[in-house]
Amino acid sequence: MGKIRLSQALDFFDESEALFMLLEPLPEYKLNEPTQFKDWTLSDVVQHLHIWNWAANESLVNESSFLKFLDTLFKKVAVSGSLREFENDWLEGLSGPELLREWRRFYTAMTARFSDCDPKKRLKWAGPDMSARSSITARLMETWAHGQEAYDHLGVIRQDEDRIHNIAILGTNTYKWTFLVRQEQIPGPMPFVRLKSPSGIFWEFGQDNDQDSITGSATEFCQVVTQVRNVADTNLKVVGSVANEWMSKAQCFAGSAEKPPPAGTRFTRNV
What is the number of H-type helices and E-type strands within the chain? Predict the structure, then answer.
């Protein structure tokens, strides 16, 4: 790996490695157990991460191939209605330890390619085009968010590191998106956000505002904007009508509008 031009690629790798190390020792039957997320198994989660890692990489190195993949996906899902069915078919049923090894091999190689690319290079995606920096940050976010399903299912409290700063930035940058994707009027300026990082420093976003603000754990804020927790299941302090409306449906990822999990349905199991 040469000179690092895109540090988020290394954060993506580190988050992927943390999840791999959690899953790799498991017996195969554990990988086939359903999680709290749509009854996806842990193998389903890794399949999903792997195929969209491949797609993001393909958008970087072969745009026409990526667009062909996207066209095939849209056509098949329009008929079957099942993204998971498409992903499993596309990977020819790859699962278990073999899937884990291939996922790791690919995200390692992908990290090197993104690390060395122009951060501002524009890439095609299923939603709007984005920069290479935004693309690999989105892969970090997806890995972290879907990783929560594994940590919750296995009863492990994840020890986050400050690389989730990338996700907090994404969460605040998509404040307007939360409303636009629902075809709703943006209710006002983004509330002030003050978060305590895993290392203990504070991250602040937006203009200081006592009337509309969100304060608390960076991990919990990231859990809400990625929709792996309902805000009611966190200790975030949410003040003001705009802040409460945002946190009730915050969505930092692309695609159609999604609802957060109902309160009490996503948690770390006691196993």
Answer: 11, 6
Distance CA 66, CA 57 (A): 9
Among residues 141, 159, 177, the one where a domain terminates is 159
- Does residue 16 sit in the same domain as residue 91? yes
Mean pLDDT, the chain, whole residue set: 96
CA neighbor of 121 nearest in space, from 136, 105, 106: 136
Query: Do residue 153 and residue 175 come from a single domain?
Result: no
Structural domain harbouring 239: 165-247
The token pair that represents 23 in the structure block: 């899953």
Report the distance separating Cα 109 and Cα 104, nearest Å: 9
Does residue 87 share a domain with residue 45? yes
Tell me, yes or no, whether 27 and 145 share the same domain: yes
95-145 residue pLDDT tens = 999 999 999 999 999 999 999 999 999 999 988 899 999 999 999 999 999
Is residue 232 in a domain? yes
C-alpha–C-alpha distance, residues 190 and 197, integer Å: 20
Tokens 């996207």 — which residue?
70
pLDDT at position 69 over 60: yes
| This prediction's pTM | 0.96
